[in-house]
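dumping this here so i dont lose it
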């Protein structure tokens, strides 16, 4: 039997919470925080991070912290690595 399954976006669910460095290359910012949600839709990344510290990417200077941040950016301008 064949089932037509729709293509689902890439997601990171609550069971996979992890700390990451997420760099926005266009805005020269690096976000360090806990992934609450990470979804890829139409070559865009929808991101929600908690317990966030924000740094200037080129200098690594600390800028500020936030309890939570959410944004959607083109996948091509983001770099994500485990902390």
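and the seq i came up w/
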């Amino acid at each position: 039997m064949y089932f037509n399954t729709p293509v689902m976006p890439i997601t990171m669910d609550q069971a996979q919470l992890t700390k990451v460095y997420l760099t926005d290359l266009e805005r020269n910012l690096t976000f360090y925080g806990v992934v609450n949600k990470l979804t890829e839709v139409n070559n865009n990344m929808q991101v929600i991070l908690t317990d966030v510290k924000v740094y200037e990417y080129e200098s690594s200077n600390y800028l500020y912290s936030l309890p939570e941040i959410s944004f959607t950016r083109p996948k091509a301008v983001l770099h994500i690595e485990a902390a």
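The radius of gyration is 14 Å.
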